[in-house]
Design a protein that fits this description.
The protein is an alpha/beta fold. Helices cover about 45% and strands about 15% of the residues. The strands form two sheets. Strands 1, 7, 8, 9, 10, 11, 12 and 14 form an eight-stranded mixed β-sheet that branches. Helix 5 crosses helix 6 (about 185-200), helix 7 packs across helix 8 and helix 11 packs across helix 12 (about 335-350). The longest helix has 18 residues, at about 150-170. The model is unreliable at about 1-45 (pLDDT under 50).
């Protein structure tokens, strides 16, 4: 598998609620006793840690984040409540977040989309002495301690590099590539697009401006249908959101088209499209880690008294093509396999979150 994996951690509990794996059991034994130095404002050992996690919306992608957060709670013996609006409506998510503040959670995690509207809610939570972590989307200028996500700009560069390789192997060294953005202006999507354009510099491909293909799935399909109809000679279609590749694959199958499909996230429909050859490349951003690691950071701070993680923890980017899709397919379709795979990765690569933290992008 071609992947950029970030580094990871030593859990604070020695019992595993969701089933200790042999490799994790051995690793935990080597970790030694947890640090008992607790700051004055840390959660007392006899008080259960209660963490709230607010998603920006509910779909297959965010369900993986939810699993990661809940698995962290189970493994670390912390109560984790995950919620989010049925649709990706920021005002609804903010109301849920404010409800978590009213519940006096020990710590909070949020996917703050779009980041600018979350500055005040996060600041108010911090003023209430509730530490806040962010994931997937950063909220620059807010009081959030840390952000857990991939290098969005570099992920676009990587996607361009893979798509160039695939198109050239097909004998297509020039032509139009149509790009769709489901939420125009959202920082992470803009970064992906900018990275993609950078990765295509020096080629003879024409990259369109990002068309608004909307975030609602049915409307997204219709938007892509219109774009495909308007660009009959395009050589590639690139979607920057998780529902783009499945919809593009359906359109391509129904029309018998030959253009390449590239995009983001490893949902089952996208992976099936890669396996069948309908889609050519997707990049993944480890949503499971985006759920698990912020909870781990809060528990280590609240229970162990470790310094609060500050800055950006890069969760890494994966590249999936027909060459390696089978190697990760079971992980993405079997929660037991997923849990073990990430437990091993976390034990190997995320032992010290503070050491991994970098300055936030744009800082």
């Amino acid at each position: 598998m071609r992947a950029k994996e970030a580094p990871n951690r030593c859990p604070v509990k020695r019992r595993c609620i969701f089933g200790v794996l042999p490799v994790i059991a051995a690793w935990l034994s080597a970790c030694g006793a947890p640090n008992q130095t607790v700051p004055p404002d840390a959660t007392p050992p006899d008080k259960r840690i209660r963490i709230g996690y607010v998603l920006h919306g509910l779909n297959h992608f965010t369900q993986v984040i939810k699993r990661g957060a809940e698995d962290a709670g189970n493994f670390l013996d912390a109560e984790v409540e995950v919620t989010g609006p049925a649709s990706f409506v920021s005002t609804e998510a903010i109301a849920m977040f404010e409800g978590m503040v009213q519940k006096k959670k020990s710590g909070l995690v949020v996917v703050p989309q779009p980041g600018e509207v979350w500055v005040v809610p996060i600041k108010e939570a911090s003023q209430a002495n509730i530490p806040v972590m962010t994931a997937n989307v950063p909220s620059l200028g807010s009081a959030a301690a840390a952000w857990f996500g991939q290098d969005e700009y570099q992920s676009g560069v990587i996607l361009a590099s893979e798509l160039k390789r695939i198109l050239r192997a097909q004998g297509k060294d020039n032509g139009k590539i149509v790009v769709g953005m489901c939420m125009p202006g959202v920082s992470v999507l803009v970064e992906r697009y900018n990275g993609f354009r950078k990765g295509m510099e020096g080629t003879r491909y024409t990259i369109t401006e990002p068309f608004d293909v909307t975030s609602e799935n049915t409307q997204n399909y219709s938007a892509w249908e219109n774009l495909v109809g308007a660009n009959p000679r395009m050589v590639g279609a690139v979607g920057l959101c998780s529902h783009d590749v499945p919809n593009l694959a359906k359109l391509k199958t129904r029309s018998g088209a030959k253009w390449a499909v590239a995009g983001y996230d490893l949902n089952v429909e996208a992976l099936d499209a890669i396996r069948s050859g309908t889609a050519q490349v997707v990049v993944g951003q480890h949503p499971y880690l985006q759920g698990y690691l912020p909870v781990l950071a809060l528990v280590q701070y609240l229970r162990e008294g470790k310094p609060l993680v500050k800055g950006w923890v890069n969760v890494g980017t994966e590249v999936i093509t027909q060459e390696n899709v089978d190697s990760i397919y079971q992980r993405e379709t079997d929660e037991t396999v997923e849990r073990k795979w990430y437990a091993d990765l976390i034990a190997k690569s995320f032992t010290d979150l503070n050491a991994l933290a970098q300055p936030l992008p744009g800082k």
